[in-house]
Amino acid sequence: MNTTVRRKLRLAAVACAAGLTAVGCALPEEVDFAAASTLDIGGGPASTATADINDDGITDVITGDFLSTTVSVLLGDGKGGFAEPINSEVGINPADVGVGDFDGDGNLDATVPNYGKGMVTVVFGDGSGKFANPTQFPTGEDPNRILAVDLDDDGSLDLVTSNYKGGDISVLMGDGKGAFAEPVNTPTPAAPIRLLAADLDEDGVLDLIIGHFGSHDVSILYGTGKGAFRAPEVITTADDPAGLAVADLDDDGHVDLAVANYGSNDVSVFLGEGEGEFADPRRYPVNGGAPAGLLAVDLNGDGYLDLATNNSTTDDVSVLRGDGAGRFSEGALADVGDDPRGGIAALDVDGDGATDLVTVNHNSSDMSVLLNNGGGGKTKRAGK
Predict the structure, then answer these.
(1) Is the CB of residue 128 less than 8 Å from the CB of residue 110?
(2) What is the pLDDT of residues 248-297, one digit of tens each?
(3) Confidence at 213, pLDDT banded by 50, 70, 90
(4) From which residue to which does the signal peptide run (predicted)?
(5) Kind of pairing between the strands at 256-261 and 241-247
(6) 244-249 average pLDDT score
């Protein structure tokens, strides 16, 4: 979609939202998923990430298997299928998984926070999907999330963990050769359960967004460069914020923030006004129970970002269709495996150009694949 057409459609969406016109005010096109297929992975998966692990031009999936002391790599074939999982040992309770080239050899490596051990484990890839040489580095107490990002703009990836029992985050600066410095810990207002990095105040420095389960808020730590952060600023969301997404949801050039609220079964959308300022949130109900994660991705191919949540207690995925003006309407509901709190990811599994979804299901120890049939038609519940 070219820029002029996209801008005209966005202006029409804004007019519809404001009630200024009835022309062109149809709901965004529906999303249609095929019934989910499933693949067995390691025990009790708690997280997922996507990357081209074996450098064949096809996106693969990697999961952190909380009850199995492993990460599982599922190599995609680009035609809708995945190979049997390749399991690599990473130590006890891998609660999350991050991917990046930590030692500069051109192969992707992986890292996990080891919940209950106060450390992260880094394993080094050989380019085939296998990881070896696990190396541990200390963090705060009970790390549960991890990010691999370049905080000081030196070209080397650094690590950030959120530490649930410690009530803080740990920053470990990387040397680009596979080693990391001692952690620098920064307190958070409440126990952190979700972690995301983005430049919210548009100063060219990454900031951190932290979700606090058991609360009604998220905190933002604005970066100052070199891996340092200002004191947290708290914004109110709703009950038990458990999923975070950052994207330009209304196409105005500013970053917006969306939060999936596990306890209130809805999503709070904060439209950005630039330089780290946000409008008051709009809340959109989710037609599933206990959303544990959140994605911002165009699922119906209209050029506007939609929102998708993986719902822990109802074992499904909900879609909220975006109109390009930062507003959302209820969309598809698709069944997946048992307790998909392990995560949700977007990729083109079958190479047809439409964005598909995968969920990682904690209780059934498997991954569900939802192939996107494209837009159009009525709301459907795949799998029933």
Answers:
(1) no
(2) 999 999 999 999 999 999 999 999 999 999 999 999 999 999 999 999 99
(3) confident
(4) 1-26
(5) antiparallel
(6) 98
Across the strands, what pairs with 86?
Answer: 73
Residue 105, CB half-sphere, CA atoms under 13 Å: how many?
Answer: 10
**Tokens in use for 7?**
């801008």
Q: Are residues 240 and 147 in the same domain?
A: no
Query: Where would I find the H helices in the chain?
Result: 3-18
The answer to whether residue 264 is domain-embedded is yes
Measure CA 70 to chain center.
20
pTM: 0.91
Residue 15 clears pLDDT 90, i.e. is over it: no
CA distances from residue 108 to 105, 148, 149, 342 in whole angstroms, order as listed: 8, 12, 14, 22
Whether the CB-CB separation of 370 and 358 falls below 8 Å is answered with yes
The letter for the amino acid at 289 is G
CATH number at residue 42: 2.130.10.10
Q: For 34-69, what is each residue's pLDDT tens digit?
A: 999 999 999 999 999 999 999 999 999 999 999 999
Q: How far apart are CA 333 and CA 129, in angstroms?
A: 32
Are residue 250 and residue 150 in the same domain, yes or no? no
